[in-house]
Amino acid sequence: MKKVLLATSALIATAGMASADVNLSGGARLGLVYSSATGTADAIRFEKRFTINVDGSGETDGGLSFGGRIRLRSDEGDAAGGISSANVYIGNDTWRVTVGNTDGAMLNRVGYFQGSVGLTGLGYRNVSFNIGTSSWGLASFSSRGNAGQVIRLDFNVGDFGVSLSTDNRGNFAAAGAPHEDSIAVSYNFGDWNVAAGYANEGVADIWSLSAVGKIGDFGLGLGYSDRSTVGSKVTLEGSYSFGSTNVTAFVADTSEKTLGSAGIGAAGSNTEYGIGFTHSLGGATLAGGIVRDFAKNTSADFGVRFKF
Q: Residue 263 and residue 135: Cα distance in Å, rounded?
């Protein structure tokens, strides 16, 4: 397969392009996951995932870069693997247009995922826009299937960047179909990045802020999101690296717009927290963590992940 790809790349390169490449990359993980959630048939399950990214890239004689990505993925319990729809892009060092299965402006700029713990992320309760039962609502790259047609424009000038995006969540969507229009900005200074974004999702508005950085071996992150019809969530993350080991922890607090609007209510908990570690094995990474979520459920995992 690699020989075919390399041969194809060579043929393209001789067709008048300044350069063109097709590259393979990916990763895998395996381990165990525990959940105390009511109704879970088995409290402990096996975890496995295998991912291949296929990236094409090139450059015109005039200096414009272009390319695209598709992803192949198989997860635990899959009868067959899935293939994502593609994205394609064109641009240069200052601007880029990306179309297809890709992140919207908010996910492209705002620092949401600092503080993620464990082998699997354990529900990603550290992500500020995952407010109670209202989760993963923002336009994002899907590792399988067709996530819709996003078009995103990115500008970068020095340490400042801005992204704008829109999508229709499907091809030739009918009038009134849900879509997301968003804008986000970011600024880097030293080891720190600050970002802010706004998205209109048709039925709701969402605002997000983040500040992420390092002080020596310590990492810090602060996040905030407000979804107009659901609630708001603030997250605080910290990490410490020593040798080949990193320890990460987070705490998050949710405020509902009205009682139960985020699926929490009197029976749940506004506070979520977790802690996890990674340890480099040289070519592989040992990882594990434990999280308590808004529904007062505890989840934990442990295993190893690889990149290739």
A: 11
